[in-house]
Amino acid sequence: MTQGPSKISTQINGISTQTLDMVQLFSRLQSGHTLVTANSRLSRVLKDRYNHWRIQSGDQQWKSPDSLSWDLWLNELWKETSLLGIAGVDGAVPNERQLISLWEATLKNEPLARTLLRPEALASQLRDTRMLVSEWMVDLKHTSWFGHENENHTAFHQWNQAFDKRCQQAGWIEPNDRYPVICQAVTGGLLTSLPPVDLLGFDELSPARARLLETLAGSDVPVSLLTMKSLQHRAVLWKGRDNTDELHTMARWVRYWYEKEPGSTIAVVVPDLQTRRREIDRVLAETLCPGCPADVQKPWNISMGVPLVREPMIETAFDLLKLLGEHIDIQDIGRVLSSPWLPGARSERNNRAILEKCIRENYPRQLKLGELLFRASEIRTRDRYNVDLPESEHRPQTWNSPQLHRILKILSRYKKDNQSRRPASSWAESFDQLLVKLGWPETESDPSRDKQENSETWQVLQTWREALRELASLDATDHHFGRQSALNRLKQICREKVFQVRTAATSIQVLGLYEISALRFDHVWVVGLHNDNWPTSAKPNPFIPGKLQRAAGLPNSSPQRELNVARIVTKRLLETAPDCVFSYPAQQDGEELLPSPLLVNEAVQPVKTIPCWQGDKW
After folding, report:
1. Average model confidence (pLDDT) for the chain?
2. How far apart are CA 344 and CA 260, in angstroms?
3. Which of 71, 290, 362, 410 registers the highest number of CB atoms within 10 A of its CB?
4. Angstrom distance (rounded) from CA 393 to CA 381
5. Model confidence, pTM
């Protein structure tokens, strides 16, 4: 199944399409259907709503619904297939970190990559490129790969062959290579007793996915593509003066409906949510619950998390580990001294502040761990006239910090005893044990931090341990590391691992543009769809010939394709709620903006005013 450049479709032979409401969807789950969703968030939200539905129905116990994202469903199919003992299942499937490590190892041995300063930086791009080529069944034998128009195309083709060879020699199965093996098992009648499969939230299906579904449908496994009934009723377009006015008006609109209809569901959709997350959170906090303590449950939930490395507790962990370097930057030391996540953060707060002042006055930019260790336990041996004092009058300096000194002493000993190269798993265990010895993370000084499963601190710590396990998994693909190399890899893992705090269900949801698929709300506000960002610009993959990208209909391959995607998403947004507001700023960075051309139609009516909360006191 190959799609042209402008065709976006989910029509597949043998698959039925149905439109239904939530009750009908939950009835299918109750009857034993497997629900496969386009993303993990949709699966998680529907599970929560299904459980609420069962409670309202008076049920006291029930089987957990079989609802999971496509990737998790594929993993389950692979587990069943791998137990059959057929050809192609005897290798190991690498996780994301191992996959990148395999690409890094491939590039190190490739002549074309030797001229690159950091070939390992390409590993993630090459992993994603291979995924596109596999899922969209791009022809790797086409002559376009070998032309002279772009050396990236030839380089990727060569690197991909080397990657295949490395996987074959080491006994790895690239994740997307599982599709044909699973299809073979289904066609051969080896995968039996599969429940009916329902798909939800898919605007399109790649050829590899479509082939798997066709194979299932052709083997008498009922497969249905579901869409939720449209709630479209009223949609308006509102123009704010600028970004600030737009967001503050949105927040007041949210509060208006939150107070007027306490039981209603409200969604705020933000196209660039990843970059505007903190701004959105701040504006909602200022309007909905100003002055609330950090540990109070907020009435909204933001879907997209933040990189784990940006969590303050994890930042402190890496700042501590930076002290193991040969030269320590003053800024890093300053963050360690002011961190609330270390023992003595409260009792030695004043001493550490004075210590930081002392260090900044005596060291221009950097110092060594030994010097910091000395300063933290420094004894005053001279008076203010620089005259030696009798030993009986020696006193600790005002910046003397015993608990900090204990931390630095442990780090100094660790640095001396851990110089040799070792496996990744050994470093993961070593870093974990070191931080525990240091007393990180300190929670006793703040009673609002606890170690219960619902606390953010506990969740951050569990995600950190997941990162350590990912580091340990590199034993299977890499040899020994030095300490700094292992630390760099751990930090990269934490950059790529997104942390999303799990909170109780809330009636207000802040979502990304592509996360709202198949969800239904009472009120929806879509922020910032103007003529410069919607439709989005095409971003072709630099490693795949453009001709092949357009022929296969790859995501982001052409302006026409992005226009079609934007039309589908806009239609889906209109169907999400009976009350839908689209907004855009009149200007941004000094430039005048217009609404997205996709919003200039009879379905969306321009308005000058929006119902908003008019109070000025909280």
Report:
1. 91
2. 47
3. 410
4. 8
5. 0.88
